[in-house]
Amino acid sequence: MTEPHSNQGVRRNEGVSQIAPVPRISVQAFCETPDVAAVINGAVDDRRMDKAHVKIHMGGAQAAIEAFRSASTPNLIVLESVSGRATLIEQLETLSEFCDAGTKVVVIGHENDIALYRDLTSRGVSDYIVAPFDVLSFIRQISRLYDVAAGGDCFGRIIAVAGAKGGVGASSIAHNLAWSIAHDLHFQTVIADLDLPFGTTGLDFNQDPPQGIADAVFAPDRVDANLVDRLLSKCSETLSILAAPATLDRLYDFPETAFDALIDILRSTTPCTVLDVPHQWTAWTRRVVVAADEVVIVASPDLANLRNAKILFDALRQARPNDHIPRVVLNCVGVPRRPEIAVNDFSKAIETALAAVIPFEPRLFGTAANNGQMLAEVENGGKIVEALNELGRSLMGKAGVGGDKKSLLQPLLAWVSRKKAG
């Protein structure tokens, strides 16, 4: 039997991606202290609680009893109690008289008492959480109540890759990054090309599947694991793609939730999904990027890219306060005779260390693109391939496996400096 849950061992941004999103449930919380109410209120704003409908009240268990004497109970009741065991048990027994079948109850207490925990669970309480705790601890416990896999291990990681500006090579980075995760780390991986009119996933992998992502997006009521499996085009034993149709025979004006059903299926069936997000800012692209477990922003070293990367980085950091900050990849660095913003200056301006620096290598990228291959198939073991491998390890929580990130970036930066000097 598990013990009462506290915030021990849970720190900001650690294990974030392993928390499954909370399903579409109704939650009513009855708090007794402002601190607990503030944490729950913070959880309401987190992307993982987006589908849940939450109301927060003060007054604890007694307020809950009064509220549900004449009203139906929600899917989940969260009760904070500062009372002693006898009073709490009495209040719970009274509340049970008004609870509808299927309603779960979570108690938040201020005593780390295993005996109390066992007493509460024996009376039907779903969980006992010890205060103080943080936002992610609270969401993790609520998520586990509705996760049939008991801990969220079946939930894969969603990685959104977006360009700070059109033409910066974001799709190329997304595709090669997915290849790296699939082949370097051996995770089953799916690339979902969200640029339906102009997507290049099929071209980059030398495939022309008859079906793809459009068949799922335009029929959301039919989307299930079996349909998605049929739409996948296999590139290797560990990598599949959901290709874009790349046609203009219809308009692609999507509602905000257009990709929700598809991404939910991919999250629940695939260890890693890389979303190739087109360069646009609409309700649906914002929703997709904000809801991802990890975000990669791809930029080139010029002023427009710097401005856009900074705006996007700051917006996503604000919208995802409990997540890892977006990773920024500086691509196509060192173009001969092109004025560029120095790598260190770019990093300083956006106020974050760069996740990877990819030098300008037209022969390598051009050969791969023209042959429908990935960079690793053209030049396996090269510095650029290893940079993407290390980025993939970091995104999948395997940083440091097979290489050192700091020592990897140093030769790339030295190469860029030499080329610029020449």
Percent in strands: 15-25%
**Relevant CATH superfamily of the largest domain:** P-loop containing nucleotide triphosphate hydrolases
Number of strands: 13
CATH T-level fold name of the largest domain: Rossmann fold
Q: Report the order of strands and helices.
A: EHEHEHEHEHEHEHHHEEHEHEHEHEHHHH
- Average pLDDT confidence is 87
Taking pLDDT < 50 over at least 5 consecutive residues as the criterion, the unreliable ranges are 6-17, 148-154, 403-408
- Looking at the overall shape, the CATH architecture of the largest domain is 3-Layer(aba) Sandwich
Q: What structural class do the secondary elements suggest?
A: alpha/beta
End-to-end span in angstroms? Answer: 66 Å
How many domain regions? 2
Q: What is the CATH C-level name of the largest domain?
A: Alpha Beta
Can you describe this structure in just a few lines?
With 422 residues, the protein is of the alpha/beta class. It has 17 helices and 13 strands.
Features of this protein?
Rossmann fold, 2 domains, alpha/beta, 13 strands
Fold and architecture overview:
This protein has about 425 residues and is α/β, with parallel strands linked by helices. The protein has two domains: about 15-145, Rossmann fold, CATH 3.40.50.2300; about 155-420, 3-Layer(aba) Sandwich (Rossmann fold), CATH 3.40.50.300. It has 17 helices and 13 strands. It has helices at about 35-45, 60-70, 85-95, 115-120, 135-145, 170-185, 200-205, 215, 225-230, 260-270, 285-290, 305-320, 345-350, 360-370, 375-380, 385-395, 405-420, and strands at about 25-30, 55-60, 75-80, 105-110, 125-130, 155-165, 190-195, 235, 240, 270-275, 295-300, 325-335, 355-360. The strands form two sheets. An eight-stranded mixed sheet has the order 8-9-7-10-6-11-12-13, sandwiched between helices. It has a five-stranded parallel sheet with strand order 2-1-3-4-5, sandwiched between helices. Helix 1 (about 35-45) packs across helix 5. The longest helix is centred in the last third of the chain and has 17 residues, at about 305-320.
